[in-house]
Design a protein that fits this description.
The complex is a heterodimer of chains A (189) and B (226). Helices cover 79% and strands 0% of the residues of chain A. With 189 residues, chain A is mainly alpha-helical. Chain B has 226 residues and is mostly helical. The chains are: A mainly alpha (189), B mainly alpha (226). At the A-B interface, helix 2, helix 3, helix 7, helix 8 and helix 10 of A face helix 2, helix 4 and helix 5 of B.
Chain lengths: 189, 226
């Protein structure tokens, strides 16, 4: 498998298949990041598309020396997510009360699902609800560390904050998340 | 080393990721063991982090990659030439379809075996529809005739058995004390005695043989059976 940096060089020379390969390789990561941040699959799909459009236009600005391609891709995605969060903040205030309603119903349905797969899917949904109640700063730190498995140094590059701040946000985010899940009546097994 | 709840919250992630010194880690654990607030908190956060690490990333929507490629490179040409005729092929490799195909193949083999078809002996002439029909018709008639013969043989055997064997003895009712004087002692039947004899089956076979030879079976059956 060719390294990302080589594919990027081929893309810059106008190689379509190299770009297609780059997209195939990283779509899942970008989609997951967008989904975990927004909690909405449709929104995540639109945002993923927007991310790759932006990447396509600004590919020449990527410098392999300054970090791996996935880290750069995550930075671009994160910046776009922050823009999107600011743009849609007003809409979310009105939605927050309605969002709280289905939580009780789903809490009961958790006990009825015997299948492990269904339980994992349910856990993922509940985790998503809890994540959406975290502040964006803590949320993005937890997502990058625990769901995207980035190193502290990579998160530092993506968020453009000192390592101490990164660690502190991740720590606070985890504790807050556990408390939110406890309030929702869910205790991680 | 003094440790309190504030330290526990601040250093929780360091503890979980093994970034504390041995001394700090021991103090952390000792505090978590005795503190009613910190113990459960550490357990909850630890479990949550483990579960998040085990969580599989979601699958992206199927059409997302092609949408991105269409938006960046322009509409992608559909697969050309003979390849477009085989776009369904990857779906056939799904376990569900593969198992279905294997089951159908196994059924075909069973049907072919049951039909008495030997693939090695097949000739081009056998594939002629008229020949195939004739062969199938012959096979069906043969099977029917075998069945009829088998049933008729069974009927003959049961018929002979029913004629030779004495009627089953009625259930013995213990005689009432009043009837006792009236009952006369029955003379023992020598034939019945002989049936309990170990050699009675030979005698019976001889009788069956004699019956078959002496009587016209067809007439006997036609006259006695409905």
């Amino acid at each position: 498998m060719e390294p990302d940096a080589q594919l990027v060089q081929q893309c810059l020379r106008g190689d379509g298949p190299a770009w297609a390969e780059l997209v195939r390789r990283h779509t899942r990561r970008v989609f997951n990041l967008c989904y975990r941040f927004t909690g909405n699959p449709t929104e995540a799909e639109d945002l993923s598309q927007e991310v790759f459009l932006r990447i396509y236009r600004t590919l020449a600005s990527y410098r392999p020396a300054s970090g791996a391609f996935p880290t750069w891709l995550t930075s671009v995605t994160r910046n776009l997510l922050v823009d999107h969060y600011r743009r849609t903040r007003r809409d979310r205030v009105t939605d927050s009360i309605e969002d709280a309603m289905p939580q009780l119903e789903e809490k009961h349905s958790t006990a009825r699902t015997p299948d492990k797969l269904a339980q994992a899917a349910e856990l993922s949904t509940q985790l998503q609800r809890a994540l959406s109640r975290l502040s964006p700063e803590l949320r993005e730190a937890v997502i990058l560390r625990d769901l995207q498995s980035l190193e502290y140094s990579e998160i530092q590059t993506v968020l453009q904050v000192p390592e101490g701040t990164v660690k502190s946000r991740i720590n606070r985010g985890r504790i807050e998340l556990a408390k939110i899940l406890e309030e929702m009546g869910l205790r991680p097994a | 080393m003094d440790w309190n709840c504030t330290y526990t919250e601040e250093r929780l992630s360091d503890y979980l990721e093994g970034a504390l010194t041995a001394e700090e880690s021991a103090a952390f654990s000792a505090h978590a063991r005795v503190c009613a607030n910190c113990g459960p908190l550490v357990a909850r956060v630890s479990s949550l982090v483990n579960q998040m690490h085990r969580l599989e990333p979601m699958e992206q929507p199927e059409h997302l990659v092609s949408k991105i490629l269409d938006a960046t490179l322009g509409p992608q040409p559909s697969k050309e030439g003979w390849r477009r005729w085989f776009t369904w092929a990857p779906a056939m490799l799904q376990p569900r379809f593969a198992m279905g195909i294997a089951t159908v193949a196994a059924c075909c083999v069973i049907v072919v075996q049951a039909g008495g078809i030997t693939p090695g002996k097949l000739r081009r002439a056998n594939l002629n529809p008229a020949d195939m029909f004739r062969s199938a018709n012959r096979q069906a008639h043969l099977t029917y005739a075998r069945g009829v013969k088998f049933v008729n043989d069974l009927r003959v055997v049961y018929e002979i058995q029913s004629r030779l064997e004495p009627a089953p003895a009625p259930a013995t009712i213990p005689p009432s004390p009043r009837q006792e004087p009236e009952t006369k002692p029955q003379p023992s039947n020598p034939q019945q005695k002989s049936e309990t004899h170990p050699g009675h089956s030979e005698a019976r076979s001889e009788r069956i043989f004699a019956y078959i030879v002496s009587s016209d079976l067809t007439v006997a059956l036609d006259g006695s059976l409905p």
